[in-house]
Amino acid sequence: MASATKDETQANDGLAQEQPLPVRAYRIMLRARVIEDKLASLYRAGMIKGGVFLGRGQEALSTASTIFLRKGDIYGPCIRDQAGRMAFGDTMLDTLRTYFGSAQGPMRGRDGNIHRGVPKEGSYAMISHLGSMIAVVGGGLYARRLRGETGAVGITSIGDGGTSTGAFHEGVNFLAVEKLPVVIVVANNQYAYSTPNSRQFACADLLDRATGYGIAGHRADGTDIFSCLEVLERAVQAAREGGGPQMVLASLLRLVGHGEHDDASYVDPTLRKAPVGRDCIEVGAQQLTEGGFATADDIAAWTAEAQSEVEAALSIAQREKGPDPLHEGWQAISTSRLMDGYYNGGDE
Amino acid sequence: MSITYLEAVRSAQKRALELDSRVFIYGQDVGVFGGAFKATKNLAAEFPGRVIDAPLSEDAIVGMAIGAAIEGARPIVEMQFADFSTVGLNQIVNQAATLYYRTGVPCPIVVRLPSGGTIGGGPFHSQSLEAIYSHYPGIVVMTPATVEDAYSMLLEAVALDDPVVFCEHKLLYYHLKAEKLPDVAMPVGKARIARAGRDATVVTYSAMLHEALQAAEDLVEEGWRIEVIDLRTVKPLDTDTVLASVARTGRLLVVGEAWPWGGVTAEVIARVTSEGFGLLDAAPMRLNAKDSPIPYHPDLWAAYRPTAESIAARLRQLLTQ
Asked: What is the CATH architecture assignment of A21-320?
């Protein structure tokens, strides 16, 4: 089991650092689940424009991915990483601001939903093209190395479908060649949108790919927060100590559709009943109570606390204004004098 | 002493490495080997650890540069040939080009594209891709036609906070020479009147500048005075300088080596007809490569792309309309 260490440099997830690690992790998972449940209901009520993409069932792996990060580390999440983002310091308010397109959110209404980040704080804003964040996270760490800075690690996450992209192969191979301290977290959630593993890859085990790239591979049970914490702690430490890239593969089941527009009717019902289909939130509750970390009342109280937090953030985000089209600069580059103002009415 | 266009590209990179410790070069074979065209010759030895060989992975190469730029570095990426940049297209146009607008964080990367046709280059070592990169918002696209511009514009590209696609022309690498490198330069983003005239304006850029200048010279004995404008950067496009020239001459031919559908020549004509229709004494014309893949055989290639002869022929049509 992962040890609960107090570390002042750990990312601020908004929770008391002195709590045992499994408790801290579980409370992040709960907060992610609670805000995602709210996002789903807001979507169904027609209050969110565009798509809503949730990480239901992936909270344990996602939380464990970033809970060992420190300030100065780099995170390139994917769309199912609400929990990992929160463990790296993302707030409920900025989450909701981005979904509502608030001008005060990190993306100022220019990008939405899960496409958010604050690059200067190490939280890179993903693009939709899967696999393409891997080399970007590696490049960020490369720049640190060029400056003589060591000790930082990067985390980048992807699903089973994303491992089929050329960018994934190029990116992981590049990390391996440069021996960069990056942990590639692969959530095999059984489906890429509607496409099952059988139509996605032909190797017996995705973790064989780590061997192919010449990097370390680790396997975790994605439905079990204790397993995820133990494996990710080891992988992050190995990367931080100069062990080069680490691939972590965790199996789990996506417990929602690809997005909230998708009823996931294509999911094989036997998978839902199999161990891989367990809900990490339910499993975690049982583990915490049986392990003496928490009582059912504690968990109910944490859930209620998270719900209050969501409501408070929602009341702020819903009141905030969106961007003003009349005062939008439409400036795609930072150098004003080199804007081609012909179409956007700038100075030419 | 004279210096070639290629030496200017190399010298600019050397100067950039000297001036700014944040600068590094990343690309295939750029290290000890010095690059496929030797544009980084000796730089790995002069700047240890800052001129780095990359795996054969254009997507990862550009992605790496973007991450490094986010963290404050100033990467110069060398694509071995412009043609291969399409393998890294996604990172350039979706990642680098959107970063500033989306997050407010600029993305100071330079992607050098050895561009354009050379004899025997064929379909995949000859392309001119400035139009594709100009199509996407968020990228500055430079197309230097002279030794001086190759040097000064590359230095400015590295100093800019934004993504720059730097289209250097391979045909100019060895043949084009200047006496010395410039100390001062025209600002990037401004077109240059390369030859003054009165009867028609040719707007062009990159290697086609030299074909157009030759065509203008050839028409002198027929009594025509052709003005030739070198765009220098195609994005931003210096529409004012073009319109001012058309106002003087009343006739416009736009020449580019790239494919005809859409593209830089179409853009120039669209702007001039929209903003300066009344300035035109004749319908504007354009001349591009043919709408086919780039042929290998020198005879096909000579007929495929605009040349001084075909530019002069098109100008005669324009001048007698």
From this structure: 3-Layer(aba) Sandwich (3.40)
How far is Cα B266 from Cα B286, in angstroms, rounded to an integer? 8
Residue A128: its chain B contacts at CB < 8 A? 94
d(CA A94, CA A111): 13
Tell me which chain B residues have a C-beta less than 8 angstroms from the C-beta of A348. Answer: 236, 239-240
Distance, in Å, from the CA atom of A10 to the CA atom of A172, rounded to the nearest integer, reads 26
For residue A249, give both structure tokens: 């593969």
Q: Which residues pair with A217 in a beta bridge?
A: A247
DSSP string, B117-173: --TT--TTS----HHHHHHSTT-EEE---SHHHHHHHHHHHHHSSS-EEEEEETTHH
Please give the pLDDT value at position A87. Answer: 97
**3-state class of A151 per DSSP?**
coil
The per-residue pLDDT for range B133-190, each reduced to its tens digit, is 999 999 999 999 999 999 999 999 999 999 999 999 999 999 999 999 999 999 999 9
Which CATH superfamily includes the segment(s) B3-178? Answer: Thiamin diphosphate (ThDP)-binding fold, Pyr/PP domains (3.40.50.970)
**Do the Cβ atoms of B103 and B75 come closer than 8 Å?**
no
* Active site (annotated) includes residue B135: no
The encoded tokens of residue B153 equal: 């514009």
| pLDDT (average), residues B82-96 | 98
Taking every pair of Cα atoms in chain A, the longest distance, rounded to a whole number of angstroms, is 69
Confidence grade of residue A345 (pLDDT, cut at 50, 70, 90): low
Chains A, B: CB pairs < 8 Å: 163
Percent of chain B with pLDDT over 90: 99
B139 touching A (Cβ < 8 Å) = yes
Instruction: Please give the pLDDT value at position A347.
Output: 44
Measured CA angle at B151 (ends B287, B21), to 5 deg: 135
Q: Where do the structural domains in chain B lie, given as residue ranges?
A: 3-178, 192-319
Q: What is the ipTM of this complex?
A: 0.96
- What gap in Å lies between CA A220 and CA A235, rounded to an integer? 11
A:157-196 residues touching chain B, CB 8 A cutoff: 166-167, 170-171, 173-174, 177
Spatial distance between the Cα atoms of A135 and A228, rounded to a whole number of angstroms: 24
pLDDT category, A16, cuts 50, 70, 90? low
Contacts of B97 in chain A (CB under 8 A): 332
What is the mean pLDDT of the segment spanning A237-249?
98
Closest by CA to A172, choosing from A209, A208, A200, is A209
B202 vs chain A: nearest CA distance in angstroms?
Answer: 21
Average pLDDT over residues A230-256: 98
For residue A144, which amino acid is it? R
CB count, 10 Å around CB of A104? 16
Q: Is the pLDDT of residue A6 over 50?
A: no
In the prediction, which pLDDT does A17 show? 62
Distance separating the N- and C-terminal Cα atoms of chain B: 46
Residue B171 tokens, joined: 């045909």
Domains B3-178 and B192-319 fall in the same CATH topology: yes
The DSSP string of A249-316 is: EEE----S-SSTT---TTS-HHHHHSGGG--HHHHHHHHHHHTTS--HHHHHHHHHHHHHHHHHHHHH
The partner residue sitting opposite A142, judged by closest CB among B68, B97, B99, is: B68
CB contact B17 to A (< 8 Å): no
State the architecture of B192-319 in CATH terms.
3-Layer(aba) Sandwich (3.40)
